Structure formats: C-alpha cells, structure tokens
Amino acid sequence: MQKTIFLTFSVFLFLTFIQPSAAQTNSAINQGNFLKNGVVAHRGAWKKDGLPQNSIASLKKAISLEVAGSEFDVQLTADGVLVLNHDPVYEGLHIEKTKYSGLKKYPLKNGEVLPTLDNYLKIGMKQQKTRLILELKPSQISKERSLLLAQKAVAKVNKIRAQPWITYISFDYDILKEIVRLDPSAKTMYLNGNVSPEQLKADGISGADYHFNVFKKDEQWIGNARKAGIETNVWTVNDPLLMDYFLARDIDYITTDEPEILLKKVAEKEQNPNWKLVWFDEFNTTGLPDSTKWNYDTRGNTYGWGNNEAQWYNVANLKNTQLTDGTLKIIARQEPTSGKKYSSGRLTTKSKGDWKYGKFEVRAKLPSGKGTWPAIWMLSSDNTYGGWPKSGEIDIMEHVGYDPDSVHSTVHTQKYNHTKGTQVGKAIAVKTAISQFHVYTTEWDENEIRSYVDGILYFSFQKEDSGFDAWPFDQPFHLILNLAIGGGWGGKHGIDDSKFPHTLEVDYVRVYQK
Ligand code: MG
C-alpha cells in the first residue's frame, strides 16, 4: 500500500518536472527546498570520477551528491548560442568566433555534446535541491558582447522559468549590473574581490563570491557582509584546512573541486551546530604575537615555575616568540639568559581572552628532543578558589621530549593534582606529533571536560558534586602556550644539549562557545 502511494507520488513529481504547466509558476517553487549545506561544486562535481568540467555528467553528479549549488561557466558563440566552457578556446577554436555547429563536432571526453545553457538548465530543473550557479564569462572581444551574453542568459532563464534555481556570478561588474537591470530580483554575486559589501548592496548585487585570500586578509569582511545583508561565497577551496577555516566563520557558501570532502566536514559540523567562533588567532601576520591577544608570562622565571624548570622566558623577543609563514613559533634556545641556561617563550591570553566553558582548538607541531616540555593549557583567570591547585588547571596538550610518541591531557584540582599523584589524565599515541601538525582540542562545559586529537576523544573528566576541591571549573580560564626545558617531568631523563633550538609551532588557536 505504502509502495503504491510512493510510486504514484513519484510519477506525479516526474510529470511535474518534465512538463512545466501553466499552473507551475515560479512562486510555486519553494525556495526552502534548496539545500543549505553551503557546498558549491566548482564546474560541477567532476574530480573524483574524472568527468569533464562543465558537463551534464558533472552536474548530475553534483545533484546526486546533494550539494547546495553546482557552478558552471557560460560563453556566447559567434552565432549567439550560450554554451558551457571554462576557457575561451574549445578544441583550438575561439568560442566567440565560432558557430555552435562548428564547436559541437567535438564531443567532451566522456562523449557528451558540448552542452548549451538550454539543455543544461533543463537537466538542472528536474530537481529542487541544488542551485545552479551560472558564471557569465566576459567577452574577449567587446563590452557589447559581454552585455549581450547577460541579456541572452537572462532571456533564456526567464523563458524557461529557471529563476528560482539560478545565481548569476561574474568577474565583470557591468554584466551583473545588466542582469540586475533586466531582473531586479535575480540573485547575483561578484567574483573579482575588489568591491565592498556596502557598495555591492548599493548596486543591488546580492553577494560576494571572492577568492579566499580576500576574506583571509580582512578578518572583518565576512562579518561586515553579514551586517550589510550581502551573502558570501569563497572560491576555490580544496585544502581541508582552509575548509575548516571558512566553516568556523560560518561563510554562506564554499566553492570547491572537492565537494565530497567538504560535505563530510559540513555534516560533522552539523552534529555540533551551536559552537560559535568567539576568539581566534590564525598567526597570519609576521613579527611578534598580537599584543591585543597575548601576554608574556615571566612570573615564575626566578623560581623555576615550581617545577625546577631550566628556561628563562623572554618578553617580546623575536628569538623566542615569532610569527612567520602563517604560524607562531615558540623557540627554546640554548643561551645563557638571566642565570638560566636556556631561553624560551610563554604566552597567555589572561585578561585578553578569558572564557568560562568552550571549545579550545589548537593546531600544532611539537618539538623533539630529550628535555623539551611543550604545553597548551589553561589556568583560572581570577583564582577564585585560591592559588594553584585550588582554582584548577586544564591541560589541553602536554608532551615530553623523551616520550615523543605520546601526548597527554590532564586536569589538576585541590583533590586531584600531581603533587599528590592524584591528577586525572590520559595519554594517546600520536606517532607523528613531532613531524606533523595535529589539532589538539578540549571541550569544557558545566559537567565535563573532554580532550581530543584530530577529533578523536581520548580523555574525559566529569564533575563531582563535592565542591570546588574536585570541580573548580566554573570560573573563567585563560590559555597558555609555552615551551619549557627540563623540569620535574620534561627533564626526568635529562636535557639533550645537542639538538637546540627547539620549536613549538602553532598554526592557529580557535575558541568556540555555545
Ligand atoms: Mg567558474
């Protein structure tokens, strides 16, 4: 019975799609049906299956993947046919100077005829999940032909009632303005990266579809666009780390040649929809760390930080704390400094970044060598319950050079701490901790602290209802990044002086809260 109903319904849908009737107006198409995962397949989904870019096959693949949008490039032949191709030249023929009949003699490498906009849109309109992102390639010949391309594209889209599916994009601002003139309700996004959100808004353009460097260079851009009511799309993001970067910033769309990878990341993010990026440092400048975010901590230099540590932490010294090539480097050197044998760096966010609860994510590569003791950790900002260990400590990641394949996450409280041997923590094997970057994360909420490496949970600590001596973790904490040398733990098997300097390299710090 259920099957019959389903089949009947399917046939109904099928007929509806292939035979748009007078009753099926644009207003009948529910915009809410279009997927909201923000993934845009660049020139269709072609890469994984080796399909031609801008082919019907790559469109169908994108639709089957259920991406939010499938992008494609449109150009105008000599005889005024709208065809799909990225480059201005197809099989050695200049598209703008060749008739369609001349071009279509040469099939795509999968045997398809060079698609026209008409047949491409008709395939795309058989579904209502994936938007069609139509890029208009500016003419190489004249502005008139660019505008003619815009006029013909709008006429075609309107004639077959494809408007609900279409977002027009172009590097040519005049093309977009022409589209807005012809169809003020058209969705349009500009590609060239040089117009502000406010100006786009003033010109009736609905979005900015910019290269990732534009958005990375100005961290305010995406937020400003949101305030101005301008949608954002970033191209072309194939690096998984760059995907994380833009997903963390809640950009509206990401255009990629790797839709399968991005879809997986979006699904992971959707499992935890409430984490919002509240603080970060991507370390993308050069020189010393950003003084609006970081302090130098030297309090314990004279007394070895209670651990008999062998380094002196310098203040604002490029030799020990420097930003280069997109990462923070905390460097420990063997050089006599203020009576210690080694210099190094210790940064904190105290009073510049203090959080009660959150997700703390640090991508880092650790030093190697006996005697090193890098740490990514947190202390109470106000010491509400008294000095250490009463107000608590959360170690997101610790590592000692004599045991290079293990990283540790630990909590310390009055009841559980290492001076009593009662600290609570766990280690996980990370064979490439010293050779590769990994993401070290701790999530901390009202009831639990959880630590992860590359998304794999390996340690958790639950609240006991016995007061602050077991759970002082209901007050603001700040972050600390440091590279110690020697000390009770790091120096347990001595310090190898043959391998200095040592570097703790940090790609980013991101803090999320609900
Ligand atoms: Mg394109």
Question: Can you walk me through this structure?
Answer:
The protein is built from 12 helices and 29 strands. The chain folds into 2 domains: 25-273, Alpha-Beta Barrel (TIM Barrel); 295-513, Jelly Rolls, CATH 2.60.120. Helix 5 packs parallel to helix 6 (173-182). It has 514 residues and is α/β, with parallel strands linked by helices. The structure holds magnesium ion. Magnesium ion (MG) binds at residues 71, 73, 135.
User: What fraction of the residues are assigned to beta strands by DSSP?
Assistant: 25-35%
Overall morphology = elongated
Tell me the CATH superfamily of the largest domain: Phosphatidylinositol (PI) phosphodiesterase
Structural class: alpha/beta
Give the low-pLDDT segments. 1-25
Keywords for this entry:
single chain; 514 residues; alpha/beta; TIM Barrel; Jelly Rolls; ten-stranded mixed β-sheet; disordered N terminus; binds magnesium ion
Protein topology:
Blueprint: H1 2-18, E1 39-41, H2 56-65, E2 69-76, E3 82-84, E4 89-90, E5 93-94, H3 100-103, H4 117-124, E6 131-136, H5 143-159, E7 166-170, H6 173-182, E8 187-190, H7 197-202, E9 207-211, H8 212-217, H9 221-228, E10 231-235, H10 240-248, E11 253-256, H11 259-271, E12 276-281, E13 295-296, E14 311-313, E15 321-324, E16 327-337, E17 340-344, E18 346-348, E19 354-355, E20 358-365, E21 372-380, E22 393-398, E23 406-412, E24 424-429, E25 438-444, E26 448-453, E27 456-462, E28 477-485, H12 487-490, E29 502-513
Parallel strand pairs: 1-2, 1-11, 2-6, 6-7, 7-8, 8-9, 9-10, 10-11, 14-17
Antiparallel strand pairs: 2-3, 4-5, 12-29, 13-18, 15-16, 16-17, 16-29, 18-28, 19-28, 20-25, 20-29, 21-22, 21-28, 22-23, 23-24, 25-26, 26-27
Bound molecules: magnesium ion (MG).
Residues 71, 73, 135 line the site of magnesium ion (MG).
